[in-house]
Amino acid sequence: MIRLIKNAEVFTPEPIGKKDVLFAGSQICQISDKIDIEGDIEVDIIDGQGKYLFPGFIDNHVHITGGGGEGGFGT
């Protein structure tokens, strides 16, 4: 599925302003001021006006060494 989020405030992680972001599946294909899709391609277009977008953001709250779970996977 191709998805285009338009006019979102994008952070990568610094703020880069209002941008369009194009995804194919789970991959980010393009970040640009304006992206227009031509041809007979089915695109899910999402209005990002007034929204914040953090492409590539992951949950970075991890404990590499300790910090919980010392009792095994069940804890």
Automatic annotation (TrEMBL):
EC numbers: 3.4.19.-
InterPro entries assigned to the protein according to its UniProt record, in alphabetical order: Metal-dep_hydrolase_composite, Metallo-dep_Hydrolases_sf
Regions that span the bilayer:
none
Keywords of the record? Hydrolase
Span of the signal peptide: none
What is a single molecular function from GO for this protein?
A: hydrolase activity, acting on carbon-nitrogen (but not peptide) bonds
Q: What is this protein called?
A: Isoaspartyl dipeptidase
